[in-house]
Amino acid sequence: MHVLVLGAGQLARMMSLAGAPLNIHISAFDVVSGQIIHPLTQEVQGHGLENAIQQADVITAEFEHIPHDILHQCEQSGKLLPGAQAIKTGGDRRVEKALLDQAGVKNAKYFVINTRDDFDSAIRHVGIPMVLKSALGGYDGKGQWRLKSTADADKIWPEMQQCIEASDNQAIVAEEFVPFDREVSLVGARGKNGEWAVYPLSENIHTDGVLSLSTSIDAQALQQQAKTMFEAVANTLNYVGVLALEFFDVQGQLLVNEIAPRVHNSGHWTQQGADTCQFENHLRAVCGLPLGSTKLIRPTCMVNILGEDTLPSEILATEGCHIHWYGKEKRSGRKMGHINVSADYYAELERIICSLADVLSADAFPAVHQFASQHK
Length: 376
Ligand code: ATP
Ligand code: MG
Hints:
Elements: E1 2-6, H1 10-19, E2 25-29, E3 35-37, E4 44-47, H2 49-55, E5 58-61, H3 68-76, H4 84-91, H5 93-103, E6 110-113, H6 116-126, E7 130-134, E8 144-147, H7 153-166, E9 172-176, E10 182-190, E11 196-198, E12 202-207, E13 210-216, H8 220-236, E14 241-250, E15 253-260, H9 270-273, H10 278-286, E16 300-306, H11 314-317, E17 321-325, E18 335-342, H12 346-356, H13 366-374
Helix pairs in contact: 1-10, 4-5, 5-8, 12-13
Bound molecules: adenosine-5'-triphosphate and magnesium ion.
Pfam family, one: PurK_C
Organism: Vibrio ruber (strain DSM 16370 / JCM 11486 / BCRC 17186 / CECT 7878 / LMG 23124 / VR1)
GO molecular function: 5-(carboxyamino)imidazole ribonucleotide synthase activity; ATP binding; metal ion binding; phosphoribosylaminoimidazole carboxylase activity
């Protein structure tokens, strides 16, 4: 089997690593350069999409912000999974919100803003405080504003207006501010035949808007709610592949924040913690193979490596620790790799993460230090 991935980053790389044992070969299409790249060696294998589409058995994507003409070209081949509609839904917060409503899953109250008058209507409809997010192109908390008092509306409007006018079809989605206790996410897979399976929920910690730490959790009541919402969203989209749902946990009630029509950073722990990792299950789903078990084999926590390209050797020397580098050039704040930490029991996992705070700097790994100070 030959799978073409739209996008040539770390997610395509990890699909390639997971696909090899199943004889599934991955090529990656770099949307920016138009080159076809080997996702592990970065070797250029060709140019242009048309030829790569013809050679592929299946086409999938590692991110949702893909130009629509490329999506349509792939969709026409009949090989694109998940379909263009699902990918576009994840890339446009207006469409995403409409989908969540259609699927009947709880999400934060919202209002779409195109003009200054809309902004006033949003304040009346959604209330203050509110979170404002660009409809297109946002990720890692970028393209967002917070409004804490009506008096500040005039101050932030020029920036919002600039964002709306900077690109075609752009808008801002105003959302009520959700006073959540914590953020969790559910990663699951749905096959071509409608078969689906989800992993245990992940609890996520963000630092400056970027995911920094994600741990499998055992929370049966939340898991049940999340599963029901996953099924509703995946079925509504007639989804094929791995899909992630991000939630706010508000006193034991889940609200969907957003969806990601792809393998997800909060599912990286499945590489060491689950029977079949999310990358393999995504490939199984889009290639029409049976899904692998999503069972937890041991509690696992993923720590993102942000803006660093070396780690103390103690990490590899620690039992249960695995490093996954992405082979990227160092840049401040960039996702360079992750560490998966596993243990037989949650208490043991907590102990190991706390011990990592002794060897990882607080500057580069604030979430590990935050975790350690909360679990002392
Ligand atoms: P990512 O790519 O990391 O998922 P994103 O840019 O797609 O981020 P969101 O997930 O929508 O954006 O928001 C980033 C973070 O901002 C959330 O994880 C959450 O911490 C906070 N946030 C977003 N929406 C709200 C809200 N309505 N109320 C409170 N906090 C929010
Ligand atoms: Mg998010």
